[in-house]
Amino acid sequence: MFDKAFFKALNITSDSSLRSFSKSVKINLTKLRYYNEKNIFPSHSDFQAINSITGISELELKLNMGILDKNIINLIQQHSNNIYGIIKNTEKNKPIYNENTKPTLQFNTDLGKLFQGDCLQLMDSIEKESIDLIFADPPFNLDKKYESGMNDKISDDEYLQWTEQWVLKCIDLLKEGGSLFIWNLPKWNTHIASILNKYLDFRHWIAADIKYRLPIKNRLYPAHYGLLYYTKGEKPSVFNEQRLPLQICRHCAGDIHDYGGYKDKLNLKGINLSDIWLDIPPVRHSKYKTRGSNELSLKLLERIISLASNEGDTVFDPFGGSGSTYIAAEILKRKWIGVELGSTESIINRFNEIDWQIEYIKDVQRNSNTLFTEEMKNKRIKHNHWIPETLSKEKVISKKKEKQMALELSSNSEN
Ligand SMILES: C[S@@+](CC[C@H](N)C(=O)[O-])C[C@H]1O[C@@H](n2cnc3c(N)ncnc32)[C@H](O)[C@@H]1O
């Protein structure tokens, strides 16, 4: 903890110096450790106390902590020539790659290639600006056990540094107009978004409603994963509109919302997909669960790939896991590149059992981009609710009735 920016800036180098600093500024140890651990700038009154004892200015402490407010960025820009003069000859850290994690080709199809190894190393070997769509679902640093044996409990700093490395490489690989989707916990997505905002165009923060933890005391119930969606350049090359069936009552199949006289104006292809996804299932069913607890639903990948790429485009996912992205890309006739640090056996097995997954994706497609699925229609007919076909009949009948009434009225008035 003494190598972190906050303590370093204040010259706190040991437990004893921390204790004496705490006494002199009258800020308790827990709070000082919190500022240091999370790299959070102290509150106004705490900073006043620190400043009165150490004399450090706000600007100096912020620069030390790497907290670059807009104001500081303006100052850096004003003095950029001088700053550049100072740092231009500093050696850029070259990555030192491990020979053991050098990617090797494990499996391929006519459309795709699967490597085993480190995604950072693989990305260095892929041609820049050659990928149409990237989806990434990295480990979340939650101390999960991965088959690859990777360390999933590193410091926040280390995790964010590593994240920045792979995110920047993904950005380089993306074609102009290409799309990048990143799936992570909201906590990490706030940091990832701040990297992406500098290079790509923000389109959406999609909230996928999936309960992934038990409620925690003194916190809201975490119930969504964040799916960041960015494009290179202002306009995506591909945006295939996706629509969903109308939401209806699970029990009586009736309308949940009142559409009044607008029922016949609803698009028969379904309701516009919003940025809150309520229909992504966790992978629980043993038939569909092919691996550990990290497997994402093919429904999610089908949607992303259909939305942001066309047949023949190239899809890349740097974190293979159970290979959901590669399976979905293969079935949807996209070219794909995959890599997994750990064993690729379960991904390859999954390709050997692709048939049921083809059926699953067909089913997902049958049940989207339509206002009512066949099952919904049958249920609604059974419960005497409208469906588009009966609406047009109702309309014809009421038009006929109107005409008849008009005739009757005119004949009455003549008599
Ligand atoms: C959250 S899982 C991905 C799950 C995947 N989306 C699916 O649906 O099956 C993350 C995966 O990334 C792998 N991984 C971690 N670091 C990696 C690296 N540097 N290069 C390649 N894969 C890595 C882990 O072994 C793990 O299988």
UniProtKB/TrEMBL annotation:
SUPFAM superfamilies from the UniProt entry: S-adenosyl-L-methionine-dependent methyltransferases (SSF53335)
Domain DNA methylase N-4/N-6: 131-342
Coiled coil: none
A molecular-function term among this protein's GO annotations: N-methyltransferase activity
Keywords linked to the UniProt accession: Methyltransferase, Restriction system, S-adenosyl-L-methionine, Transferase
Pfam families per record: N6_N4_Mtase
Domain of life, per lineage: Bacteria
Gene3D superfamilies hit by this protein: Vaccinia Virus protein VP39 (3.40.50.150)
Record GO biological process: DNA restriction-modification system; methylation
InterPro entries, alphabetized: DNA_methylase_N4/N6 (IPR002941), DNA_methylase_N6_adenine_CS (IPR002052), N4/N6-MTase_EcoPI_Mod-like (IPR002295), SAM-dependent_MTases_sf (IPR029063)
Assigned protein family: Belongs to the N(4)/N(6)-methyltransferase family.
Name the record gives this protein: SAM-dependent methyltransferase
Species in which this protein is naturally found: Cytobacillus firmus
